[in-house]
Structure formats: structure tokens, C-alpha cells
Amino acid sequence: MYKEAAKYLRQRLSSAPEVGLILGSGLGQFTERIENPVYVDYNSVPGFPYTTVEGHKGRFVAGTCSGKYVIAMEGRFHYYEGFDIKEVVLPVRVLKELGIKNLIVTNAAGGVNMDFKPGDLMLITDHINLSGINPLRGRNEAEFGPRFPDMTYAYDPALIELAEKTAKALGINLRKGIYAMMQGPSYETPAEIRMLRVLGADAVGMSTVPEVITAVHAGIKVMGISCITNMAAGVLDRPLTHDEVIVTANLAKDKFINLIFAIITSL
Ligand code: HPA
User: What angle do CA 238, 244, 249 make, to 5 degrees?
Assistant: First the structure.
């Protein structure tokens, strides 16, 4: 399946991409910084699940950033949408087939750490998989990686260092922390957020972990960045809304775009 999809994409791209990007909710506008862009809708790619996601474009954008050929995903497949977990991570395998060495994954997330503020960017140093699923379940695809892949350095230490250095040079206060994945689509309860805090999570969201596991399995170096779009449930005495997630992600987007661009430049 991924071979056919990769072949289809290869015919449309002008180079082999070195860097892959998965852009989370409200963060898709990074693609405006990609030069000589080629657009490929997910719905046109053989083997890709059909999607009509609200607020997501659902397409690949490939082109150059600071002279590097990159391929970005504007929108992702979420498990909560009802996709099979194999469908959720199919694009990562396709990107591997295309030859990417580094993958930058991004998302909108709720702030569990009380020191965080909406609009903060958080470099993901580790994750807690509370989704109850693992994309590698089933027969191991040995051509990608081992049966029992190590996750000690899932978020590549050299890339963490690079992100920190780059943020510092730009004067961006980049937070660091642990991302917990819940399955969603309901937001967490206040009690669940207190639980996550006890477990050591700093941010919570409904994505990213399956893609990271799949990428690490395939030997891709991963960097993760969360945009803290809201304080998690129960921190403030009011309900959470998807609108506030999108509004805050939009407010943080210039900072986010500049950081990602500078990181790609120095990769
Ligand atoms: N919880 C889960 N996912 C999210 C949140 C949240 O508070 N904010 C953005 N994505």
C-alpha cells in the first residue's frame, strides 16, 4: 500500500524529501513558507483513506525550505475520526519510502503543567501513550524495523538540543515537556487531567504518538513540538472549546512558523 502511494508521490515531487513535517490543528499555514510548492491531496493518493476533515486541508505540500527539500502534511488522520490505526500511520511509512531522515511532528495540546500558558510552544522530550493502541500491533513489518523497537530516544536528543538552541537564538521561550496521548474525541475530565499531572505529563492531546512510534520503528529521527492552545480541563473554571484551540494556535502561528523554519535551516 505504502509503496504504491510513495510511487504516486515520487512522480509528482521534484526531489527526494529530506525532512517530513506533520502540521497539527491550526498550524497548517507553515506551508506558506515552502518555496516552489507541489500540492497533492490525500484523496488522490492510492491507498489513502478518504477524508473530509473540518479545518484541515488534507494534502501534502512539498518544496524547498532554506534549500532543503521538505514534504509537509497539512492535516493528519486521527484515530478518533474512526480510521484504523494502520491508516493513521500510513503517511509516515510513505514518507519513509520517499527517503525522509527527519520528521517534525506538531500538534495542538492542552496545558497540564500549571506553569504553561496558552500560546506557549513545548518541545516534546518524551511521551506517555494512554491511547490504548499501538500502530505496530500485528505482524512486524521487518523491512521498516524490529519487532520490539526501543523508545528510549524516541525524541532524538540531538534534535532536542538543536531546537533549544534555535529557539534561544530567536528569543522564543520554548518550554519542554512530556506529551500524553488520550484517544478523544471528548476532552479530558478534570479528574483525568489531575491523573495526567500525577503521571508526569505536561501536555495532553489526541494525536502524534502513533506517528512517532511508527517513525522511530522505521529509524526516522523525530522532533515534536506542541502548541499549548488551552489550559487542560479543570484548570480554569470554564468549558473547553475547539474554537479556542484554533484561535490560540493562530495567535501563536508566527512564532511557530519562524521556529520550524529556523530549525529546518540548521538541520
Ligand atoms: N485535550 C486534548 N487535546 C487537545 C487539547 C486538550 O485540552 N487541546 C488541544 N488538543
Answer: 140
Q: Please determine, for residue 157, whether its predicted confidence score (pLDDT) is greater than 70.
A: yes
Number of separate domains in the chain: 1
Closest by Cα among 206, 215, 100, 144 to 1 = 144
pLDDT one-digit tens code per residue, 44-64: 999 998 876 555 679 999 999
Residue 78 belongs to a domain with what CATH number? 3.40.50.1580
Model pTM? Answer: 0.97
Ligand 1 centre and the CA of 14: distance in Å?
A: 36
What domain range includes position 167? 2-266
What cell numbers appear for 245 in the block? 484551540
232 lines ligand 1 (CB under 6 A): yes
Quick one: average pLDDT of 247-253? 92
Which of 32, 31, 50 is CA-nearest to residue 42? 50
pLDDT tens per residue across span 87-124: 999 999 999 999 999 999 999 999 999 999 999 999 99
* Pocket perturbation via mutation, ligand 1, pick of 117, 120, 127, 240 by most ligand atoms within 8 A of CB: 240
Q: What is the rounded end-to-end Cα distance, in angstroms, of the chain?
A: 30
Q: Which of 62, 78, 249, 262 is catalytic?
A: 78
pLDDT at 54: 59
